[in-house]
Amino acid sequence: MCVRLGTGTPDRAEATLPLTGTVRTTDSFPGPLTGRGTEHPQRMSVDGVLALLRSIRADTGPGRGVAGLLAHEDLPSDVLATLEDEVLRVRGTVTRMARREHELSALFSSARELAEEREPALLLRRLVQRAHDLLGTDVAYVASFEQPSGVLVIHEAVGSVTPELMGVRVPPGKGLAMKVAQSRAACRSTRYMQDHGIEHDDEVDAVIDGEGIVSMVGVPMLAGDDVVGVLVAANRSVRTFSTEEIALLSAFADHASVVLQTARLLDEAVVSAAAAEQACAELTRQTSAMERTAAVHSELTAAVLRGGSAQEVADILGGVLRRRITILDRRGTPLADSGGRAAAAAEPLEDGERTGFPAAIRAALRESRRTGQCVPLREGASGLAVAVVAGESLMGAILVDDGEIALTPADRRTVERASQIVALLTLRQEAVADAEERVRGELVSDLLGARSVYRHELLLRARSRGIRIDELRTPVVVIVDPEHRRAALRAAHDIVPGGLAGEHEGTVVVLLSEAPGSAADLVRTRLAATLGCPLLVVAGPAGTPESLADRFDLARRCARLLGALGRTDTVATTDGYAPYLALFGSGREDLGAFISQTLGPVIDWDAERGTDLVATLLGFVEANASPTRTARNLGLHTNTVLQRLDRITTLLGESWRDAEPLFRISIAARLHQLAAVV
C-alpha cells in the first residue's frame, strides 16, 4: 500500500508529510512534493512513512539517514534531503517537548512536596538535587542571607567534592552569588575565575578553585521585594547556560525561596511559641507568687485582727519563704524566731562589748529606713534585713536568712509587708501596754497616796488584774535616767506575777511580796538585763498595805541620800541607812557641808599625803576609843595607831575625843566612807 505525497481528500488512504514542524490538517499542507523534471506527484509506501515516523521518535539519530530508510522508494534526491531536514526538525521539537515534560514533572513534584513536606531542610536538599539533575551540572548549591551581617552562607550543596564548600560565607559585594543578590537578576559566567566583571574574594575563590568549578550561573531567590538567597549551578568545564536552563533554575529558585521563607516563618513561629510559653510560664509564676503573697498578707492581716504576736508572723513568713525568720525589737532583742530559738534566748544581740544591733544590721536598717525595702546584709553577714518603722521611729527589724532558692521580688515585697504588720502589732501591743501601765500607775498612785486604810474599790481594781494588795509587802524604788524611765517601767511590769509597778511622783515603784533584800536584788537583776544602764534600786521595809505610803517615802528618801552620796548604780535597803535618814535630809549640799566641817582637815591630809587617817579614825570609834584594840583590828602596831591619833589631834584639836565631838566625827567618817563606796 502506498501513500501519495500531495493534496487529496480525507477519505482516501493517502497521507502527506508537513515540513514546517507543526501538525496541520491536509488542507493546510503545501502542494505535493515533486521531483525535478517531473510533473507528477511522488508516492511513498506505507512502510516508508512508518519508517520515517519511527526515526522521528527514535532516541538516536536515523543511522542510515532518510535516504537509507527510503532506499526502496523511488524518490528524487532533493525530496530525500527535504524529508531528512524535516525529520531532524521535528525530532528536535519532540525532544524539547519531552524534556519540557520532564522538567514540568519535576516542578510539579517539587510543588507537591512543598505542600506535603514539613521539614524545610529536606525540601531544600531535594530542590537542589533536582536542579542539579535536570540541568546536568556538576555542582549545585543554595546560599541564604545571614542576618544582621548581610553575609551569604551556603547551606545545601550537591555534587561538591570538598567539605569547605558547605558553610562558605560570601561577604557583601563579593562573588557571583552576591552579585545576583544585589542585582536581583540572574547572572552567568562562562569562566568564573577569569571573569573581571565580578568582585572576587580570596577565601571564596579558594573554595571555588578547590571544587574545580569553571562555569557558573546563579538566580535570585525572591520573597516579595526581598532577596532571601541565591541558587547556583556550576560546571567543572566550560559551559554556556541557555536561557531555558536559566528559566528552569529560576523556577527552582522560586520554590527554594518558598522553602526558606517557610523555614524563617517556622523559626519565627518556634521563637514566638517559645516566647509565648516563657511568658505564660512567667505569668503563671507571677500569678502563683501573687496568690501566695495575697494569702500570706491575708494571714498576716488576720494575725493583727486576732491580736497575734511577732512569733506568729515569724512562723507564717518562715513557712512561706522556707527559711529562718528572726524578728528583733528596737534594742535588737529577739522577739520571735521561726526556728524556735528566740524564745529561749530572748537576749540582745551582741556586737563586741555593746548590746543592740550589730554593725552589719545597723547599716542595712539605715538603708531600709530610707528606701522602705529589704536590704542585703554586708560586712561578712548573710541574709536580708528590713526595718520595722512607725512614722519616724524604728521599732525593730526582720532578719531573713539565706535559703536554697533566691527570694523573688514578690517574696521581698511579702517581707516588707510583714514589717508593716509587725509595726502594727508592736503599736497595738504598746498601746495595750500603755493603757495597762496607766491603769497600774493610777492604782499605785492611789495605794501610795492613801494615808489611811485602803479603800474597798482599790482592792476590787487590783483583783480585776490578778493582784492581791494584801500580799504586796515591800515597796522598791528605782532611780534611772529619764530617757530610760519608760523602758524601766515597762520591764518592771513583768518582773513577777502578782507584782504591781507604776510611776508615782516621778519615781518608778515596784510593789512585791518578797522580803526587802530579795525584792531589791530581783528588781535590779531583771531591769539591768533589759536596760543596760546605771540603776539605783532601794527597797523599803516590809509591812502592811496600810503603811505602803510611809514605807515608800522612806525608800525614796534613802535613794535620794545615796544619790547625794554619789551612789547611782547600786542596790540597797533602807534598814542599813535608817540612822542617817533619821539625822539628815537628802540634800547633797547639807551632807557635804557637814562632812567638810567636821573632818575637812583630816580628809585633806589623806588626799595630799596618801595616808589613811580617816580609816584609822573609824577603827578607833568602832573599838570604843581603845588604841590597843584599834591596832589589833587594823593589823597595825600600837605605836603606829598612837602616832596617827596624835596627827588627828593636831588637825582637829585637843577636844575631838570628847563625847559630843567624837559622836559628830564618827557620823561624818561613816558618811564619808559611804560616799567613797560607789
Automatic annotation (TrEMBL):
Q: Which UniProt keywords apply?
A: Coiled coil
Which residue ranges are recorded for the region named Disordered? 22-41
Q: Which InterPro entries match?
A: CdaR-like_regulators (IPR051448), CdaR_GGDEF (IPR041522), GAF (IPR003018), GAF-like_dom_sf (IPR029016), PucR_C-HTH_dom (IPR025736), PucR_C-HTH_sf (IPR042070)
Question: Per the database record, which ranges form the GAF domain?
Answer: 119-270
**Per the database entry, which stretches of residues form a coiled coil?**
266-293
Provide the protein name.
GAF domain-containing protein
What is the taxonomic lineage of the source species?
Bacteria, Bacillati, Actinomycetota, Actinomycetes, Pseudonocardiales
Q: Which Pfam families has this protein been placed in?
A: GAF, GGDEF_2, HTH_30
Tell me its family: Belongs to the CdaR family.
Q: Which domain of life is it from?
A: Bacteria
Name the SMART domains for this protein: GAF (SM00065)
